[in-house]
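Box 4.2: Ligand-aware structure prediction
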Amino acid sequence: MSQPLIPPRGQHVDLRGYDPAFTGNLAKEQARQLLPALCERLNELQDTLYADRRFAVLVVLQGIDTAGKDGTIKNVFRDVGPLGCSVANFGVPTEEELAHDFLWRYHRETPARGKFVVFNRSHYEAVLVERVKSLVPEATWQARYDQINAFERLLVDEGVVVMKFFLHISREEQRERLQERIDNPKKHWKFRQGDLEERRNWDRYQQAFAEMLSRCNPAHAPWHIVPADHKWYRDLVVARALVDRIEALGLRYPGPFEHLAGIRVV
Ligand code: ADP
């Protein structure tokens, strides 16, 4: 049994064809053993990325409430030090942000060459929550797919590796995770009344996700549909995709620096 991680280009994505509980016949124990080496490798790659200075890495995480964006960040980037990696969280836009074009607040958080930045929610909210809750007119969000594609094209042309992950969970899994937030006192702080209201929009979100995955999936900045019902599989998929992609960049340390040969530090 297999299912594509990157949806085929030029076809409408039907999320019903992607099993959120998929684990590729991998056992939880196996995954637990594989993850640490990938996390360490990611840290090494970030070091080399910084020395090399040609590229930056932008990781985009999207998913419905409780899909596991925070957990993915904690687990996958646990070995990457704060020198080279930061997280940008995007909540309800401020008055100042609303006074600008919709991409403004995202563009200013994109990574400098040599750095990793993780977008915890992203510019895609402009075609997700803003569409689902009718925060902007349809003509506005319809135009945004092309605008987002142009924005990502610019980033890629300027050396930013854009890695987009859609954390795909089932409706039942969301129910269990929300219930856990209500039942477990240590998780009460995570629960907001609005979560239940948002859950009623489940189908509209799935439709908006499918459209985002279909219309903003160019080869240079593809989406990865990550089966995310099992957290251990989700983390492994994200870590492996990042390592594979960054390794393929052929990063190198600058040099040789001939003028250093023979110098003695006294
Ligand atoms: P999270 O749910 O990601 O852990 P928060 O609890 O801070 O983080 O929630 C962020 C909230 O901001 C979400 O309810 C999300 O729908 C909202 N949000 C994000 N981007 C936008 C946007 N562009 N317009 C309106 N609301 C947004």
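In the box above, the bound molecule is adenosine-5'-diphosphate. The chain has one domain: 15-247.
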